[in-house]
Design brief:
Layout lengths: L3 E5 L4 H17 L5 E5 L3 H8 L5 E5 L16 H28 L4 E5 L2 H10 L3 E5 L3 H9 L6 H11 L4 E4 L12 E3 L11 H8 L6 E6 L7 H8 L5 E6 L9 E4 L6 H7 L2 E4 L3 H10 L3 E3 L8 H11 L2 E3 L2 H6 L3 H9 L11 H14 L1
Parallel strand pairs: 1-2, 1-4, 2-3, 4-5, 5-6, 6-7, 8-9, 8-11, 9-10, 11-12, 12-13
Protein name: Glycosyl transferase
Length: 363
């Protein structure tokens, strides 16, 4: 069959995590199906999750802005608008570039999580196109347009493309997304990790008998006083993060995902502290890990994720002030007595998406 061109936004690792789950399912079902993955996510992140998928080739490319982040929790809306203006100047050029690429590679299906430009290139080329996501950028930007009219142009720009997309595979924790004319709901897609507590203890020289806490952020600006507050908890807790996040000279062990895959890190820890993100929430659910979740600023996806957290995870909230000062004591006490919800969500989303993509390719 013709190749699949699979585009992944670099806005966050969650988009990459769930895309890797889909790509793994594709490889299991159709190991010879060629897939060209285009993204600006770090290559080592992708290769650490897809090392056994010999049917995949990688290509660098970015086709959206998402939100410019100050760190994993705080967005910079002014810089985001500046980057959107720059993207808008190249919009038609990038569509033309991708049309040539799709034609040269004889691509049979375009999949996007969830940049608009590749979908537009497919639409103008008459190639079947499928979006995957639990939100779309027009919806995110529409929230800001209520108080700043500069966003309205970009809301319409993205929405016009999404309205012409052949199919949306709508993930859990999502708004209605009615701008997509055809939608299909998909169960959770995330794979449970393998507990590797002994391996991690040997790598990090950490104590297996303590309670292990994972600080799951891509970036987090903790000052020296915050790190000292965390160190004061070291008698009872071991703290971990995953590179590129690291805090040299602190008590927080920075793990290399090449040595221990992220899913295995989560499976090995007792409690996760993070912002609500689709990938992180999904991995906590499939690994049955309690979550201490932070604020996320003005982001429309947040209440949908919190609803999922409260329905499926033992959880408690940590205020941003406590997060940035390393004042974890109250939250760590609260999570111990937090109830475990009895909600259940199906976990066959990756396989269902893979079958949908292969079906669209055969049509």
């Amino acid at each position: 069959m013709k190749p699949i061109a699979y585009y992944i936004t670099a806005h966050g690792y969650g988009h990459g995590t769930r895309s890797c789950d889909v790509l793994h399912a594709l490889h299991r079902i159709a190991p010879t199906q060629s897939v060209i993955v285009t993204t600006d996510l770090p290559r080592d992140f992708l290769e650490s999750r897809l090392k056994d998928c010999t049917n995949i080739t990688f290509r660098s490319g970015g086709f959206d802005v998402g939100l410019v982040q100050q760190d994993s929790v705080r967005a910079d809306l002014f810089q985001t608008l500046e980057k959107l203006e720059e993207l808008n100047e190249k919009w038609d050029q990038l569509i033309s570039q991708e049309r040539l690429f799709l034609q040269h590679e004889n691509v049979g299906l375009v999949v996007a999580d969830i940049p608009a430009i590749p979908l537009a290139a497919a639409q103008r080329s008459g190639i079947p196109n499928i979006a995957i996501g639990n939100f779309s950028w027009d919806w995110i930007y529409a929230d800001y347009a209520q108080t700043d009219l500069h966003w309205e142009y970009f809301v319409e720009k993205f929405r016009t493309v999404y309205e012409q997309t052949d199919l949306l595979l709508r993930l859990p924790f999502a708004p209605p997304m009615e701008q997509f004319p055809k939608r299909k709901d998909i169960p959770l897609l995330a794979a449970a990790g393998q507990p590797r507590r002994k391996d991690i203890a040997n790598i990090s020289n950490s104590n297996m008998s303590k309670t292990w806490i994972l600080l799951s952020f891509t970036s987090l600006d903790l000052e020296s006083h915050a790190l000292e507050n965390i160190r004061s908890l070291n008698n009872d807790y071991e703290f971990f993060c995953v590179q590129p996040l690291e805090f040299p000279g602190s008590c927080i062990h920075a793990l290399d995902r090449h040595n221990v895959p992220f899913a295995d890190v989560i499976a090995s820890c007792d409690i996760v502290i993070s912002k609500p993100g689709f990938g992180l929430v999904s991995e906590c659910i499939v690994n049955s890990k309690p979550l201490i979740y932070s604020d996320r600023g003005d982001f429309a996806e947040y209440p949908y994720l919190v609803e999922g957290i409260e329905k499926y995870l033992q959880n408690t909230h940590i205020p941003s002030a406590d997060l940035y000062t390393g004042d974890f004591v109250q939250s760590l006490e609260k999570i111990k007595s937090a109830p475990t919800p009895d909600g259940f969500i199906r976990r066959t989303g990756a396989e269902m998406i893979a079958e949908e993509l292969l079906g669209a390719l055969r049509m």
